[in-house]
From TrEMBL:
Residues 175-396 form the PPM-type phosphatase domain. This is PP2C family protein-serine/threonine phosphatase. It is an enzyme of class 3 (hydrolase). Pfam families: SpoIIE (PF07228). GO terms for molecular function: protein serine/threonine phosphatase activity. Its EC number is 3.1.3.16. InterPro entries: Bact_Sigma-Reg (IPR052016), GAF-like_dom_sf (IPR029016), PPM-type-like_dom_sf (IPR036457), PPM-type_phosphatase-like_dom (IPR001932). It comes from Kitasatospora camelliae. SMART domains: PP2C_SIG. Keywords: Hydrolase.
Amino acid sequence: MDDAAFGAVLADLLERSHHTAPAELAALVRGAAQAIGLDDAAVYLADVQQTHLVPYPTDGPSTAEEPTPEAALRMEGTFAGWAYRTESLRLSTDDGLVLWLPLIDGIERIGVLRVTAAALDAPTIARCRTLASVTALIVISKSSIGDTVPRMVRTRPMTLQAELAWAFMPPRTLGTSEVTSSAVLEPAYEIGGDAFDHSLDARNLHLAVVDAMGHDVASGLSSSLALAGYRSSRRLGAGLADIVDAVDRALARWVPDRLLTAVFATLDLATGRLSWVNCGHPAPLLIRRQHVVPAALTRPAHLPLGLGPLYPAPAPHLHHAQLEPGDRILVHTDGVTEGRSRTGEMFGEPRLVDTVVRATAAGEPTPEALHRLVRTILDHQSGRLTDDATILLAEWHPTGGRSQQGM
């Protein structure tokens, strides 16, 4: 197949995708794969906790609602999981020629594409990569217009407060040639008051991590309201101090008697200047050359949010720090470090940092490093968290591209 014919197949795939229902996506991709000379293609998406890869249903809406657990592939110990975790292709010859390619939206991992073929030369593999990229775009476009994708990536029911919180959450990973930001949040199906946000504009990376009091629906409402207030003010051009005031007033008005801690930050991508406000939250950590710089970002904290105008407080402290290329900023909630094992041992900040540093030093991508950190936290608490645990890790790499330290 020449490039013109391949381009025509992709153009047809994109054109047909506009009018394809989410439940028909697998058949659409398979048809395109066969049109370029492959035997077959199948889409697998990562479940909410990123422990399994779930096959996209192939028989229409009925199976789209109920994926079978037996068909899911484990992340650990499989070619599919290896392709997802390392963000690279993997070739298996155990059952014919099977190529596994990561499905990535921007730099957000969403799943893998399984391709089978009688022969796989370099041009064919290159076309498979392109097909995977286009498939990822189509999957994302269909994820928000129905329940096919949300249902298939869940392995158990989600609480009402978790449903509310996840509805407001952005993609877990985003980035450019200058910066990367990734976050994880557990327990994914029962999250109460934790939430995060990250966003890019022409000049800045905007970051937020919030932790609302409690673990009920009001907690989910508090964190969702905080993110809505944060985004609304930010999009109007408000500075961090004004954002804090807006979120404080919104919480006091709509969710009275509920407090929330938060870190709101802005990173200037051109200069590396970090600005932030800490509202009663654990201090962010600065990781430089695989070591934490002690107390580098520890500053006086503002009061938690939600007190409102009835309890006037001084203007929030706006802090600044100058980053160096390759520096990482780690923001977490107290559920990470204060989680206890069955013997009462706290997870602690040193273990948190050590786990992240070891994983990134070994060359793992940041999303995978954070995923492994969450598994370590869960293991420490015997698989059952007593509090929400959220971690956001951002790296400034202005020289272009993700660093060789795992970002």
